[in-house]
Specification:
Blueprint (H helix, E strand, L loop, with lengths): L27 E4 L8 E4 L10 E7 L2 E8 L5 E10 L9 E8 L7 E6 L11 E5 L11 E6 L6 E6 L4 E6 L5 E8 L7 E11 L19 E4 L9 E5 L5 E8 L2 E8 L7 E9 L9 E8 L7 E6 L5 E5 L13 E6 L6 E6 L4 E6 L5 E7 L9 E10 L3
């Protein structure tokens, strides 16, 4: 990642703005020019793979950058340790502030805090997270982000491996020990996100809290139709390095389409993504539509959607809507959105479990497909004109 040569905008100004009350709580540095991390980590670890996750720090002109390289096709993230912070008094009027930029632009992730574990066995190291996409569209330029602490959820979560469950409990703002980042599966390549001047401030200008909430479309939402969506569209396939999703000739009434080559010995599939959109108004009458064909005919493929609020996915078998499965000729698959379940699932790499979440139709950013697991002869499938329509 290119180092920004001039980071003068990150210098902390001592003079308080006019809107700050005289008795405002003092700012608490988390990471920046005069504050280093106690420790740092990233997951899944590098392990010699160029697609593993990494975390590095970089200093330039007295300013420090925290740079994450996150594995793109699985759940990934990391964090830095901080002095145990007592932030209870900051929740009502304080905010988390930092600068952020991406390696390519369009990156998405959640940020938040982890509390120190208490003496009671039930008092776990709970984590709270909030989507960056609610406050900023990440680009390759540094942008300041302000997230009011009151926007974070009151409850934190912690996976308990021995009990195979995700525990929940009230988050304790009096013993914050980590600033953390988490990202759901997306692009196959490594994703880079950098932070600078991370701090908790005692007060903030509410008028400067940006809203990057997804737009509400009124017409067709294109994911792929001879090309990807212009707002950061792209695709990936998994397992990384074994499955492929590539553009080839001979599309449905077009020059190009997508050819998915999946492995048949494991769960395999992929996704087509774009900037999240609010499809809440499409839920009752809208449809997911795609044109599809098989390499041999007879293939069964599952199609679905992923929300970027919590990474949950919903999916259904195309065979329900195409009895007999795919053929070697193009066929239109139309799945009413109301047919999808209310609850979605997301794979948690750390616990190797599927976690359940309510599907958020206000932040839909991906169409997914898969072969429904090993021992299914669904090796090659072609897709084109993949879109969500307000009605058939």
């Amino acid at each position: 990642m290119r180092v920004v040569k001039a980071l003068a905008l990150f210098c902390i100004v001592s003079a308080a703005p006019a809107w700050v009350a005289a008795d405002a709580l003092p700012d608490v540095p988390v990471y920046g020019p005069n504050k280093v991390e106690m420790y740092s980590y990233a997951f899944p670890p590098w392990a010699g793979s160029p697609q593993g996750s990494t975390v590095t720090t970089r200093e330039n002109g007295g300013n420090r950058q925290l740079i994450y390289g996150l594995k793109g096709d699985v759940w990934s993230g990391g964090g830095i340790g901080v002095d145990r912070l007592r932030l209870k008094d900051y929740v009502a009027s304080g905010a988390l502030e930092f600068y952020v930029r991406g390696g390519k632009g369009g990156e998405t992730a959640d940020v938040g805090f982890v509390q120190a574990k208490g003496l009671d066995p039930a008092d776990l190291a709970y984590q709270i997270l909030i989507p960056l996409a609610n406050y900023v569209h990440i680009t390759t330029a540094w942008q300041k982000v302000i997230i009011p602490l009151k926007d974070f959820p009151a409850e934190g979560t912690r996976w308990i491996e021995s009990e195979n469950r995700n525990a929940k409990g009230a988050f304790n703002w009096s013993r914050v020990q980590e600033f953390t980042i988490s990202r759901g599966p997306g692009a196959a390549e490594q994703v880079q996100i950098a932070f600078a001047n991370v701090a908790v401030v005692g007060s903030y200008d509410a008028g400067k809290v940006a809203s990057a909430r997804p737009a509400k479309p009124t017409g067709p939402v294109l994911f792929y139709t001879e090309s990807y969506a212009a707002d950061g569209g792209g695709s990936y396939a998994y397992p990384n390095g074994q499955a492929k999703l590539e553009e080839v000739g001979g599309g449905h009434e077009s020059r190009r389409c997508l050819m998915a080559t999946m492995i048949t010995s494991a769960w395999s599939g992929g996704g087509i993504y774009r900037a999240p959109l609010d499809l809440g108004g499409y839920r009752d009458k809208g449809v997911l539509q795609a044109w599809a064909k098989g390499g041999k005919g007879g293939e069964e493929i599952y199609l679905g959607l992923t929300d970027k609020a919590n990474g949950a996915s919903v999916r259904l078998s195309a065979n329900t809507y195409l009895p007999g499965g795919l053929t070697k000729d193009w066929q239109r698959v139309v799945i009413p959105l109301k047919d999808f379940p209310k609850t979605g699932a997301k794979w948690d790499e750390a616990s190797q479990k599927n976690l359940s979440f309510d599907f958020d139709w206000t932040k839909v950013g991906e169409v997914i497909f898969d072969n429904n697991g090993p021992d299914h002869d669904n090796g090659k499938v072609f897709l084109d004109d993949v879109e969500v329509l307000p009605q058939p």
